[in-house]
Write a structure and sequence with these properties.
Its cofactor is Fe cation. Pfam families: Ribonuc_red_sm (PF00268). This is Ribonucleoside-diphosphate reductase subunit beta. One of its GO terms (molecular function) is oxidoreductase activity. This protein is mainly α and about 80 residues long. It has a domain at about 30-60. It is built from 3 helices and no strands. Helix 1 (about 1-20) packs antiparallel against helix 2 (about 30-45).
Length: about 80
């Protein structure tokens, strides 16, 4: 059930990418975005112990993972009692 939900959601995201990117922009297009969405779906499936849908898919945007994984710095004044 969970795998099916993730696969359905991924397919909807792929369709959205195709609709919103009919033409390529520098470094990004619908097929590359489809690879990324399948990569993310695989990661989510494996995180909950399920079989990956597209095990051959790799991350076409390795820089995005680095940005997401960066530790967020806090602004002193936003997180203090002052």
């Amino acid at each position: 059930m969970c795998a099916q939900m993730i696969q359905q959601r991924t397919q909807l995201e792929i369709e959205y990418a195709r609709d919103t990117m009919p033409r390529s922009v520098l470094g990004m297009n619908a097929p590359i975005m489809e690879d990324y969405l399948n990569f993310i779906a695989n990661r989510r499936l494996s995180q909950i112990g399920l079989k990956e849908k597209c095990p051959e898919t790799t991350n076409p945007f390795p820089w995005m993972s680095e940005i997401i994984a960066l530790k967020k710095e806090r602004n002193f004044f936003e997180h203090s009692g002052y």
